[in-house]
Amino acid sequence: MTTPPSGLRERKKQATREALRAAALRLAVERGPDRVRVEDIAEAAGVSPRTYNNYFASREQAIVSAVTADREARIAAAVAGGPAGVRLADAVTDAVVEQYTSTGEREREALLLITTRTALRDAFLDTTDGIEPPLTAVIAERLGGAGTRTTARVLAASVAAAVRVALENWLRGWRRPGGGVETAEAAGGLDAGGLVVPAGSLPDQLRAALAPLAPALDAAERRAGP
Amino acid sequence: MTTPPSGLRERKKQATREALRAAALRLAVERGPDRVRVEDIAEAAGVSPRTYNNYFASREQAIVSAVTADREARIAAAVAGGPAGVRLADAVTDAVVEQYTSTGEREREALLLITTRTALRDAFLDTTDGIEPPLTAVIAERLGGAGTRTTARVLAASVAAAVRVALENWLRGWRRPGGGVETAEAAGGLDAGGLVVPAGSLPDQLRAALAPLAPALDAAERRAGP
DNA sequence: CAGAAAAAGTGCGTGCACGCAATTTTGCGT
DNA sequence: ACGCAAAATTGCGTGCACGCACTTTTTCTG
Predict the structure, then answer these.
(1) Contacting residues of A for B118, CB less than 8 Å apart
(2) CATH topology of domain B8-66
(3) Whose C-alpha in A68, B19, B64, B190 is 20 to 30 A from the C-alpha of A6?
(4) Which residues of B touch A153 (CB under 8 A)?
(5) pTM higher than 0.85 for the full model?
(6) CA separation for the pair A152, A55 (Å, rounded)
(7) A132 falls in which pLDDT band (50, 70, 90)?
(8) Other C-beta atoms within 10 Å of A144: how many?
(9) Between these two residues, A214 and A226, which has the higher pLDDT value?
(10) What is the DSSP letter of B184?
(11) Strand C nearby residues, CB < 7 A
(12) Domain B69-224 carries which CATH code?
């Protein structure tokens, strides 16, 4: 199941994809995101520009995918791999937090780059959509035949949306003038008066954004299980 | 608040926008969606192609907006306008269902057109994103200062996601060979064996998709209210 | 092990999105 | 009424996404 069709052909594809990823990121860092044309990336990866577009639907996707990788699939795997006794809401939350806790130093650099351009920021946020399909599958399995498949999709899509909100909040406070971010009130950015200053670490933001969905996940799980 | 800046200038803008909408839809129906270029739409509306792109970021948006109109804002208004005693979940669900119950005959025609092209279908589904901002505002108001603004955003985004799922389900069964759609089991498309046949009227699909989120809305409201 | 079938890569052409800077239109103050 | 500042429109140029048809590579099958 993890190796759908076969071998050699698939590896070449992944190699090409990886080469494009790497080339896109490297060139973007070297020259700045705006000075990189699709033609350049393709050339650096040794393929035609047309082939490039068979792998990525936009120039931003290639750059962003270097930091995104296959995060979506790993989230679903983490949820599916966890112990069965855990609350679904907790399993999902922990899986998301864990997979978004970037350990790589290279990722930091890439994220810094991404925040500098609106198009890249948007592409990065759009990657949350990719969580939905695998998460739908794993949630549907946990709910068994009891829940509708629609329920699983809605919950998965909601989780994806929450993650997006969390990332938006996080990016918003990223590199704020004065550096007041790290020292803001409590995690979650309390509404004080009228305006809001969302702040907090990425894990905090993720947990804060996913928390409101817990009741929905609990209820679905309750209907499914005993 | 409903009339932000002023008058005449704004009306002209809306007139232009409306002219573009109408022209886009008319031409798409007349010639078929693929035989309409941006240049044609702009010409029919009496503006330059460049101006067209100041109003719509893509060709599909213009066509789709003819059937979408300002549905998002009306949903938020319906939620805000309802009685205060009603459960938030019910207020939202009813508002969404009501605003998506298309009464116009012209809308049917437009939807039929939209389903014929993947690009249009996607653009139509993307309009659900527009629900989030106004819905966030109205939910945040109902939750008062008790809930975080993030909570409101997450809930609004989840509702938008649920609506998207509902529309996807609905479109999937749209014009099915054999017409087995209308007579499928109960609304919601029960999982029977392994595969799924989502079916049901649009209102049914919407309610089925929004139902799983009710617990989350209830919980947030409970924290806010008493 | 050949030859067919499937899949990936490629070149080309078209229409499009959008930044930029010049120009026209609109609104407002005096 | 007049002129100025803000806003909208426009033309132009660039790079890009993607359909189509064709070539090359990989895989499958007898």
Answers:
(1) none
(2) Arc Repressor Mutant, subunit A (1.10.10)
(3) A68
(4) 165
(5) yes
(6) 29
(7) very high
(8) 11
(9) A214
(10) S
(11) A 9, 12-13, 16, 47-48, 50-51, 54-55; B 6-9, 12, 36-39, 50, 53, 57-60
(12) 1.10.357
